[in-house]
Amino acid sequence: MAADKMFWRLLCLVVGLCIVWRLCEPVAPAIDRHGVSSHNLVEHDLAFNRLDGGFVRKLLQDEDEEHFDERLLRELVDKINRSSLNPMPETAEERCFLTRGSWCTQYLTQAAEPRLLPTYFDKPCPRNCSGVGVCNHEYGLCFCPAGYGGEDCSQPRKRPCHHMGTGKRDAGWHNLTAWSHTRCAGVCDDDVAMCYCPPGTKYGRIEAPPGAALGTPPLQQGRPLFMCTPGTDEAGRKVEWGGTPYQDIFGPEGWCNAEKPAFKCPCRLDGLGGSTCSEIREQVCVNQCSGHGQCNQGFCKCYEGWYGMDCGLRRAGKVDEEGDEMLAKPWISDVMTHVVATEDPPMTPERRRPYIYVYDIKPDFSTDIMQYRIEGSHCVYRSFEKANKSVWVGYNAYSVEPVLHELFLTSEHRTLNPEEADYFYVPVSVGCLFDVYGWNEIPRWPRNILGTRSHGAAMLQREAMRWLNATFPWFARRGGRDHIWLNPHDEGACYVWKDIWPGVMLSHWGRTDFPHASNTAYSQDNYSLPLHHPLHPGDWLEHTSKAHPCFDPEKDLVIPAFKQPSHYRKSPYMGMVGPVTRTIFAFFQGDLRMEPGRDPACRYSRCIRQRMYNLSKDQLWKEKYDIWYGDRKDMDSNFDYSEMLSRSTFCFVLPGDGWSPRLEDSVLHGCIPVIIMDQVQVAFENIMDMDQFSVRIGEGELDRIVEILQAISPEQIQTMQDNINKVWHRFRYLGIRMATLEVRQRLQQYRENHDEDAPKNPGSEHMVSRQDDAFDTIIQWLHYRMPFVHKATKQ
Ligand SMILES: *[C@@H]1O[C@H](CO)[C@@H](O)[C@H](O)[C@H]1NC(C)=O
Ligand SMILES: *[C@@H]1O[C@H](CO)[C@@H](O)[C@H](O)[C@H]1NC(C)=O
Ligand SMILES: *[C@@H]1O[C@H](CO)[C@@H](O)[C@H](O)[C@H]1NC(C)=O
Ligand SMILES: *[C@@H]1O[C@H](CO)[C@@H](O)[C@H](O)[C@H]1NC(C)=O
Ligand SMILES: *[C@@H]1O[C@H](CO)[C@@H](O)[C@H](O)[C@H]1NC(C)=O
Ligand SMILES: *[C@@H]1O[C@H](CO)[C@@H](O)[C@H](O)[C@H]1NC(C)=O
Ligand SMILES: *[C@@H]1O[C@H](CO)[C@@H](O)[C@H](O)[C@H]1NC(C)=O
């Protein structure tokens, strides 16, 4: 690496001086995406930054707040240079290590094209969307928040609570209907089916006065009454669907009346916190409405002149940055990722294919589902805590859905011009639907039945596709082959509607056998249950799972699950533990579901985890071989998952209900994956030389696991470990702002702790660079697929 390039890169790592982080990343000379040295670019951007007015905001992305001092910087750089990470791979050959075929090199060696100015649109919307919705000026369509509909958002589009009568109150507490989460003892916000303390109580909801403008918020939101239902009425008569003593809710010392109530109902709605649920917090929206709108439970209400699901698009003719919240709401800058496609003038002057157009999707299939959440932690990967501090959501298995949406929106490969698009990303909230489905009558797809969640998800995608196909020419143009659909759920794309199947299916579940049937242990997800409905002729199975396999290695991709950096904080790649000693021979910790009666047919994990557990006991794995296997209670009390993975030579990759992100866990910790699931591919298996850094054992060979692993020589083990060091970064996503900030903080902290003696663990050079990360890998593969997708030729 050229010395001056190294200098600027190191500078960026620690000081965060670069305005656009990507500029800091090393690029091979032949494929330098900017055509000028990084050095020049940094100065160029600083110059921009000195401009007053409009441009400053767009340049805020990477902490240009830092004032710097030449001497201090020099000292820092010297220090880093002594205790630094290893150099990054640069040449195409190095970067494409262990990739199969030519997808990686083809991408890296393509010629760059100049980035054009963004395209601006100015189509008006009917009646300005009544001041309630957001006008998409490209489509000329109003996108309305939950509760509002019609072409101008003036029509009610309600989501009543279960068994709601007049006045948004329950139709009779003593009528026992089917149990529902939205049975409401207070007053219902029937835009989204959320229950609050009723009017007349001190902390009850007070609606906006009659005649107030459409969309006016309530005068008092009220304390939530979600999952908090009385066991009796005032007179003591039993209410079948409740359990809480009446006085605890409605009494003078109760939740709805007392300033400091003795009994507290749950406070789980996004945007509320504190012991009485009265602390107002920022809510979560895609890319936080780009600072150009008000976030309402996932719906961005954009300020005048801005539009898009993330308010990231500027209406033609709008020149000022009015409505910019970066300064008014400083907490937003920690979670907002810079959008390259809207740079004007382009600060990233060149671009490479593929060009990807990100649809704005009708709320029915996207933001409505977000707004129907009753748990703040559903459907998102982050939230705002006390004082609006950003935190990761503890666990959301499908978090790749919001992550990929933001990554596509902010990507250098995004185009605002569908004419030139090589691909179309369809951001429907299908993973989110799984959290929301079945709690209330709406949304269900179709709306009048309660089928399996799989049926609902397939119908939602089908309806979204029909809307796209009826509204734009793009779906029909290439037979839908260039449309990218994400299927984050447990059994991936096994049951998608056959009309969308020609598209690119991204999922975590690479099951290849056909015909196939659901293997879920959760009956609500059984996609093999027959279902007839007037909206489709015959059995839905004929349109879905019986029509295609779960995964087609030629046109689809198994992508890694999203893991926040703290998940692998003890990994040697995070620099945190120094040189690793892997004293545990093999490791697995996870759900076993072996309690009597829990899973009588032993379906979960195809019974692999359970059979292995019994083997581990029979063969004394821990005592004789240092193999740690089991669920949480089989581990030590001070057990730390990340540390265990870092200390293990082999880690088992076993299915869960469908996919389980164990390949990611192993690789991110430098542990050699031992994959046991026949005819199921793991992440990137069709595009990487998986054999060079993993072991596969057949389901029929479980008895011989120890024997097989022991037969692997120390040299083979060393080779596989060396290989993982060079590819692990392809299995994690770094592009979103929060992840980037976290890894930088961790690196800095590590340096402070170790000063000059910080060990250079092999592989840790990738720690803070998003070069060739999981998202880049997806993009590189999409590039390679372009000719097949465009011309419908076979591979
Ligand atoms: C880092 O150290 C190397 C070797 O000591 C030296 O050649 C190089 O110039 C240094 N780089 C910077 C940016 O100081
Ligand atoms: C359109 O509605 C927005 C609110 O969504 C409002 O700020 C704006 O002034 C309205 N414009 C016109 C021309 O009525
Ligand atoms: C609820 O029960 C009352 C009294 O039995 C009855 O009059 C009313 O029709 C019921 N309402 C509903 C919505 O079932
Ligand atoms: C957090 O954000 C909300 C919504 O923007 C705001 O009303 C509130 O004042 C903020 N809280 C703090 C402590 O800044
Ligand atoms: C898309 O629309 C075209 C034109 O209306 C129609 O011929 C085609 O069948 C539609 N495709 C699907 C999958 O519905
Ligand atoms: C799913 O439903 C089908 C049809 O009823 C049944 O045969 C199958 O055993 C079920 N599968 C699971 C995993 O429960
Ligand atoms: C595991 O062993 C227990 C106890 O002997 C037995 O009940 C269970 O069926 C075994 N499970 C499997 C999957 O072998």
TrEMBL record:
Q: Tell where it localizes.
A: Golgi apparatus membrane
Indicate yes or no for the key word Cell membrane.
Answer: no
For the EGF-like domain, which residue ranges apply?
A: 121-154
Q: Which domain of life is it from?
A: Eukaryota
Signal peptide per UniProt: 1-26
Question: What is a GO molecular function of this protein?
Answer: glycosyltransferase activity
Q: What is this protein called?
A: EGF-like domain-containing protein
Q: What is the lineage of its organism?
A: Eukaryota, Viridiplantae, Chlorophyta, core chlorophytes, Chlorophyceae
